[in-house]
Design a protein that fits this description.
Blueprint lengths: L2 H8 L4 H20 L6 H24 L16 H7 L1 H28 L4 H18 L11 H22 L4 H7 L2 H14 L2 H6 L5 H5 L1 H24 L4 H4 L6 H12 L9 H24 L2
Helix pairs in contact: 2-3, 2-7, 2-15, 3-5, 3-6, 3-7, 6-7, 7-9, 9-12, 9-15, 12-14, 14-15
């Protein structure tokens, strides 16, 4: 394989989504540790490996069938006939081979988890939900990624289910602490996806991709984005009322100034303010990942 093809293959890995999965998995395990559970490092690594291999498998499978999993974050992958003719048939076949290899690795890891005795009914349900989430977003004929539901399914799969499976693998049962600690991140992640897809809005309209922004329009989409951010921090405040330790959740509000500035800046766009993509993109990532970092750090350093 040439260096050119290696670089092209790297473009098929969605770094924001992959980083989200790993960070939220760490957070889920951190919550189990915060509640006093001793972390089984082997189970931790096996569960994370299964999740990453499954996710990568669906990424490459979606690109092979040209139903890309969220093409609008950092790289809008070109799937025009002109681009395909440049690549030829071998890269497309290679995407399928890589996808099948990732699925095979996930299958082997599943067997290992079974032999270790860590697979319970709860784990089976969570694994099935995660598989279904990726399946609905990438498989041809079903792909919902550009249907207006894709953003919601993406956030549920990455932000809710990823930490849940990490938590259950360690703690073995559900705990309300997981719900009140994780759920506020859902609207923050959904807001991040909406913003990062804003740059590809014209392309989505051209290709008739019915994303939330296309259906709502960019002005109403930005209003929803700002509302979701406020909702996320409001839910963190509610979680404090319902028993979340302030030493764990309190630090997330350090990201609130960045969130307020982002909301104010985006609100000015309707009046013709310039779009500063690098600054806005950085702020959007900070508003989501900084609370995730503070929660993870606090839970692991208790």
């Amino acid at each position: 394989m040439t260096e050119h093809h290696r670089i092209k293959l790297l473009r098929h890995i969605r770094p924001i989504h992959l980083l989200t999965t790993i960070a939220l998995y760490l957070l889920g395990a951190g919550f189990a540790r915060y509640l006093g559970q001793r972390i089984d490092q082997l189970v931790f690594l096996v569960g994370l490996s299964w999740l990453v291999f499954l996710q990568l498998g669906f990424y490459f499978l979606g690109d092979h069938f040209r139903t890309p999993f969220d093409p609008g974050l950092l790289n809008r992958l070109p799937f025009d006939s002109k681009d395909l003719s440049k690549e030829g048939s071998q890269p497309a076949e290679l995407l399928l081979y890589i996808s099948l290899s990732c699925f095979a690795a996930a299958g082997v890891i599943t067997i290992i988890m079974g032999l270790q005795g860590v697979i319970s009914i709860s784990i089976v349900v969570l694994m099935g939900l995660i598989f279904t989430g990726f399946f609905l977003l990438t498989v041809p004929g079903i792909s919902l990624d550009q249907s207006g539901l894709g953003e919601i399914i993406t956030s549920i799969t990455l932000v809710i289910l990823s930490p849940a499976i990490a938590f259950i693998l360690q703690y073995e049962i559900f705990h309300r602490f997981l719900v009140i600690g994780i759920f506020p991140l859902f609207p923050l992640h959904l807001a991040m996806i909406l913003f990062l897809r804003l740059g590809g809005l014209r392309e989505d309209i051209k290709r008739n991709r019915k994303s939330i922004l296309v259906r709502m329009g960019w002005k109403q989409g930005l209003f929803l984005h700002n509302l979701l951010i406020l909702c996320g921090f409001f839910l963190f405040g509610i979680s404090l009322i319902f028993g979340s330790p302030i030493r764990l959740v309190g630090f997330v509000f350090l990201a609130l100034p960045a969130a307020i500035y982002l909301i104010w800046s985006l609100s000015q766009l309707e009046d013709g303010a310039p779009v500063r993509w690098p600054v806005f993109t950085l702020l959007s990532l900070v508003v989501f990942f900084l609370p995730v970092y503070f929660l993870t750090y606090s839970s692991w350093t208790r």
